[in-house]
Amino acid sequence: MRPLPIAILASALLAAATPGANADTSTGADPTAAPGPAVHQLADTQLDPKALYFVSYDGLVNNNAFQKNGLLTYKGYQYAVWYTADRSAVIGRRALTQRSWQTVTLPHRLTADDSHNVISMGISRTDGRLHLNMDSHSSGFFYVKSVAGLVDDPAGHPWTTGQFGAVQTTLDGLALTSQFTYPQFIATPEGRLQLSYRVGVSGNGRNALAEYDGTTWRALGEWSSATGTYSSEHGSSTARNMYLHGIDYGPDGRLHAFYTWREQNNAVMCASGGLTNHDTGYVYSSDRGRTWRTAAGTVVGTTGGSDTVAVGDAGTVVDPLNPDHSLMNQESQAIDSAGAPHALISYVPGRFGQCTTDYVADRTRYGRTFHVFKDSAGAWKKTEIPVAPGSTQRSHLVFDAYDNAYAVMPYGRIVAASKSSGWTDWKTVYDGSGLNAFGEVVVDDTRLAQDGVLSYLYQRKSSGTTPSALRVIDFTLPS
Predict the structure, then answer these.
(1) Of the ranges 14-23, 184-193, 207-216, 407-416, which one carries the lowest mean pLDDT score?
(2) How many other β-carbons are positioned within 10 Å of the β-carbon of residue 377?
């Protein structure tokens, strides 16, 4: 069996893999040929019958696709985080051999009806702690970490509040910023834990990193720039922020980041009802996020330095697009087993018009999802996925053991393409119609890397602020 592709924290958790049940991929075809994509439902379990529900920014606080990680797996246990009906932060766990979840209610309640204020988890392998960062949108954050060894020996630790420390508004005394958003934990190949976040606000912010070595958190600094001039045919803007599609270690230890830019000045758009997002960019780091390079290897930024990744840096744009097509920010990325970077992006193609005037209506009606990747020759390729998302919202990209690609789309639909086709034969392999899911889902990248099971968290549709069921569904993939 080929080694599994790695994405985000999953790369650093492979050493903790626990074998699980896998689908029978026998098809009667050539046994030496790699199988194509397939999904087989394994289980569908309930986390909470009455999870918090309100629609904000066209999304839910419990299931934003950019959440990293709202669902993760380590040493035979899966962990999930959410807000329940009374706004309390909850963390659940289950042994992978079980369908029932244990829950702990933390001493924190969601402070705002804002879907940005997600809970993200990370694991520091150096000391076996589980870390949570939660409830922020251009504001302060709330941080909790477990006792040492909790995830190394879960069966030996009762699942109680006593396993978690106090809720903090710093990282063990390290104050990062008063304008904090988008926490994403990533584990380095040697087991350190990094935290990616935005400093500032939408349209005027910078990406930054902090790092935990098993004892102490320290700030590595900012690595993207908010300054410089961007001009379109309509006007100019002098401030912006970089929105990450992800930040993930590949199998060779390279740290990858696809992104889009959002301009502060609406003058760059053809109509005020669109989005100022433009272009898909890509950079990587070979030194754990200290130095950033273009796909061609040119240095374009240093974390914590005076020269950070900027909108005008040559060689960073891999798919150019002006701000008139309602390009979505923070879609998705993944790294295949050969270490090649892939991303999903979505926008309104030009065949439906060259000016979106209402991004919600236009994206819902005309938005399309595209797969962008770097091929073995170093060229960037793009394929339109011929299944319309029918939503403003994001899809999530993963790979199976044979580098077949799967896009988990809004409402829990799964579309897939085979590596053998060059990822051009996209088709629906699970329509999700029975889930009654609202919008985006949260995928457990770490479990897929460990046992070939695709797990994702979804919340059932409701109305107003009526709580609804929050569930996790599991599928086996070829392995």
Answers:
(1) 14-23
(2) 6
- Average pLDDT taken over every residue of the chain: 93
Q: Is the confidence at residue 17, as pLDDT, over 80?
A: no
pLDDT above 70: residue 8: no
Give the pLDDT band of residue 3 (cuts 50, 70, 90): very low
**Phi, psi dihedrals of residue 410, rounded to the nearest 5°:** -50, 145
Q: CB 267: neighbour CB atoms within 10 A?
A: 15
Summarize pLDDT for 115-173 with one digit per residue, the tens: 999 999 999 999 999 999 999 999 999 999 999 999 999 999 999 999 999 999 999 99
**Amino acid of residue 154:** P
Between strands 368-374 and 341-347, the pairing is: antiparallel
Torsion of CA 449, 450, 453, 455, to 10 degrees: -70
Q: How far is CA 218 from CA 125, 231, 335, 448, in A?
A: 17, 37, 27, 30
- Report how far residue 14's alpha carbon sits from residue 312's, in angstroms, rounded to the nearest whole number: 37
Domains of the chain are: 10-24+36-476 (2.130.10.10)
Q: Is it the case that residue 439 has pLDDT exceeding 50?
A: yes
Give pLDDT, residue 305: 97
Please say whether the beta carbons of 343 and 373 come within 8 A.
yes
SS3 readout for the chain: CCCCCCCCCHHHHHHHCCCCCCCCCCCCCCCCCCCCCCCEEEEEEEEEEEECCCCECCECCCCCCCCECCEEEECCEEEEEEEECCCEEEEEEEECCCCCCEEEEEEEECCCCCCCCCEEEEEECCCCEEEEEECCCCECCEEEEECCCCCCCHHHCCCCHHHECCCECCECCECCCCCEEEEEEEECCCCCEEEEEEEEECCEEEEEEEEECCCCEEEEEECECCCCCEECCCCEECCEEEEECCCEECCCCCEEEEEEEEECCHHHCCCCCCCCEEEEEEEEECCCCCEEECCCCCEEEECCCCCCECCCCCCCEEECCCHHHCCCCCCEEEECCCCCEEEEEEECCHHHCCCCCCHHHHHHHHCEEEEEEECCCCCEEEEECCCCCCCCCCCEEEECCCCCEEEECHHHCEEEECHHHCCCCCEEEECCCCCCECCCCEECHHHHHHHCEEEEEEEECCCCCCCEEEEEEEEECCC
